Amino acid sequence: MYIGRTRQKKSEKRYGTLTPDLTTIRDTLVSHDCGSIAMESTGIYWMPIWHVLESDFSLKPANPYFIHQLPGRKSDVKDAHWIAECLQKDLIKGSFVPEGVLQEMRQFGRQCFRLTKNLVRIEQQLDNRLQRCNIRLSNYVSNQGNNVSLRKVIGTIIQGERDPYKLVQLVHGRTKNKHGHQVITDSLDGVLNQTDIEMLKQCMEQLDLLEKQQAACLNHLEELADQYYAREISLLCTIPGIQMYSAMCILSEIGNDMNAFGKASHLVGWAGLRPRNDESLAKYGSSCQFGYH
């Protein structure tokens, strides 16, 4: 950590990263009358420092892309000197960090997204397992992950039923009418052993767990949105194509105060959708400006 210059003197000291160490950093900075602090916002490592210091200082987490030094010999101390010098000259524009409730909503929203990806992955594994056993029902149904008929069939197979003429009774009549009763029956005539059954069982258990966790995240997200941002969510839902979940995610990502972005182009750049000037020999690079937490 580099505290800065006081009468042309530098204050330098190395600290650990545990909470008592961060508390010591805070007390040291307070004793030196530091008003503003800048830091590189790399990964998630800036967050614990932010949580300890945000109550006492004006913090500026900066995208490392915008404060990198010129190539050459570098060290943590030199990086700290450079960041402090840029801060003193007001050359650092801090990245947008939402307030506490929005950060909580953002965590739930992003967890829902991760859980959805995991659900898709497990659904693909489940389908691959069925195809391996030559059970082809998934070829004839839509929305394989949430198809009621498919899940009923898998659950019955796990319980020990193998007769395709009994399994076909669990399939929705619309599916049988569309593709033919005999075709659906034949698609359920598979070859399974005990290992296949155990794998199917584990896939179904994982799906149930992920869906339960996703429902819990959505419930917490809706509770926070209703309690603190009901009006904003209602306004966002008036936009064509924006549903409740999308509105909550948009709010948690960009907040409810657009003054943080200055103008519309800043918000577009923050979202990574505005190409920056990257021209050389009449050729343009494809990189975009972005910086978010």
Structure keywords:
single chain; about 290 residues; mainly alpha; two-stranded antiparallel sheet; two-stranded parallel sheet; disordered C terminus
Write up what this structure looks like.
The strands form 4 sheets. The protein has a two-stranded antiparallel sheet with strand order 1-2. A two-stranded parallel ribbon has the order 3-4. It has a two-stranded antiparallel sheet with strand order 5-8. It contains 13 helices and 8 strands. The protein has 293 residues and is mostly helical. Helix 2 (46-53) links the parallel strand 3 (36-40) and strand 4.
Largest sheet, spatial ordering of strands: 1-2
The SS-based structural class is: mainly alpha
Shape by Cα distribution: elongated
Q: Which percent bin holds the helix content? A: 40-55%
Q: Please outline the major beta sheet.
A: 2 strands, antiparallel
Instruction: Supply the number of helical segments.
Output: 13
Number of strands: 8
How far do the termini sit from each other? 22 Å
Q: Rg from C-alpha positions?
A: 28 Å
Low-confidence segments, ≥5 residues, pLDDT <50? 287-293
Elements, N to C (H/E): EEHEHEHHHHHHHHHHHEEEE
Instruction: Give the integer mean of the pLDDT values.
Output: 86
List the helices and strands and how they pair.
Elements (H helix, E strand, L loop, with lengths): L1 E5 L2 E4 L6 H13 L4 E5 L5 H8 L4 E5 L1 H4 L8 H13 L11 H33 L15 H11 L5 H4 L5 H7 L1 H7 L6 H35 L1 H7 L7 H11 L9 H7 E5 L3 E2 L2 E2 L3 E3 L3
Parallel strand pairs: 3-4
Antiparallel strand pairs: 1-2, 5-8, 6-7
Helix pairs in contact: 1-2, 5-10, 5-12, 6-10, 8-9, 11-12
